[in-house]
DNA sequence: ATACATTTAATGTAGAAACATCTATTAGTG
DNA sequence: CACTAATAGATGTTTCTACATTAAATGTAT
């Protein structure tokens, strides 16, 4: 459905306003779809994001602050997200030797197993994007990167 | 900055995964920017969304359920958002004559005045999109519409 | 008309986000 | 070295979100 129908707004100030609203609307929609898939596995999109980052370390420990840097949502409280993963035995935590302020986090076998179960969902989810070509996808990614560029402007 | 740098991920499974992450990351970034602008006026993006919808009615009352339909975030609790606007004298509420279950909501002069103050911020915010052409904006909007199409697929 | 289902909005509640604060540790400077 | 600043992560608090439930009004079917 078109964004016009979805939010019942016939006119937009400009194609840019329309795009801004569409970006927000579509992302909320995508997140909701993801939330739905994950629900039966008792994991939130944010927790999944952390797990995915942990797997990306391929066995190496990673500090909480470095997880935050890699998060999609920088303002999320990584400490508490890790707590949740710990409580479910999806991650392990140990104090870092070289810097005793820091905490090393590693994914557990159980965490890896859960990701393996979730992978097909994510792939399906990403396959929605197959309606465009790889080149188009790259192009739009480049445009989004550009949008975030002039930090000092707004 | 590129999404690779922003979330410190060098490789992506596909251009589609990259686009999916970029969409989520960019939207969170946009929302954060909006939140920052609104903060000094003591209004949240969600409350602003409702106010904008009320203004769009051009003086006509609108039911709570119809506001929800027009919201970017369908799962938000419109009842309580309207409460907040009421408490700040930005909206008025009166029971609907034709259906006594329903409640009519109207924006106040004070609400309109606040929107007038916020408009320039929103315009600046939307002007970020000027780095792409109107045609490109329409193109991306069309793609986002398409993404949401096969409801039954994922 | 009665009974049951649906709709509309409000409310209760658990959990999460946003933001500030606190403690421990490390880094930097005179 | 002593002192201050900076950093890492945990925690407290308030607000918001997500979800379920409730209450009243309306719609529908027999």
| DSSP, total strands of chain A | 3
| Whole-number mean pLDDT of chain A | 90
> How do the SSEs of chain A run, as a string of H and E?
HHHEHHEEHH
Q: Compute the gyration radius of chain A: what is it? A: 19 Å
The helicity of chain A comes to: 55-70%
Low-pLDDT parts of chain A are none
- Biggest β-sheet description of chain A: 3 strands, antiparallel
Give, in spatial order, the strands making up the sheet with the most strands of chain A.
Answer: 1-3-2
Q: List the total number of helices of chain A.
A: 7
- How widely separated are the two ends of chain A? 31 Å
Domain HTH marR-type (chains A, B): 9-149
Protein name (chains A, B): DNA-binding MarR family transcriptional regulator
GO molecular function (chains A, B): DNA binding; DNA-binding transcription factor activity
Keywords (chains A, B): DNA-binding
In brief, what are we looking at here?
The structure is a homodimer of 154-residue chains. The first copy, chain A, is 59% helix and 8% strand. Chain A has seven helices and three strands, in the order αααβααββαα.
């Amino acid at each position: 459905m078109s964004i016009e129908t979805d939010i019942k707004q016939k006119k937009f100030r400009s194609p840019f306003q329309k795009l801004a609203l569409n970006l927000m609307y579509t992302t909320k929609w995508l997140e909701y779809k993801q939330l739905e898939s994950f629900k039966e596995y008792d994991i939130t999109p944010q927790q999944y994001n952390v797990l995915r980052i942990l797997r990306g370390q391929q066995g190496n420990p990673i500090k909480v602050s470095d997880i935050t840097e890699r998060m999609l949502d920088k303002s999320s409280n990584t400490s508490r997200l890790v707590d949740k993963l710990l409580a479910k035995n999806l991650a392990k935590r140990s104090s870092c030797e070289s810097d005793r302020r820091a905490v090393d986090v590693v994914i557990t076998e159980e965490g890896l197993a859960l990701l393996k179960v979730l992978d097909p969902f994510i792939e399906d989810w990403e396959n929605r994007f197959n309606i465009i070509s790889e080149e188009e996808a790259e192009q739009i990614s480049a445009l989004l990167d550009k949008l975030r560029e002039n930090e000092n402007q707004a």
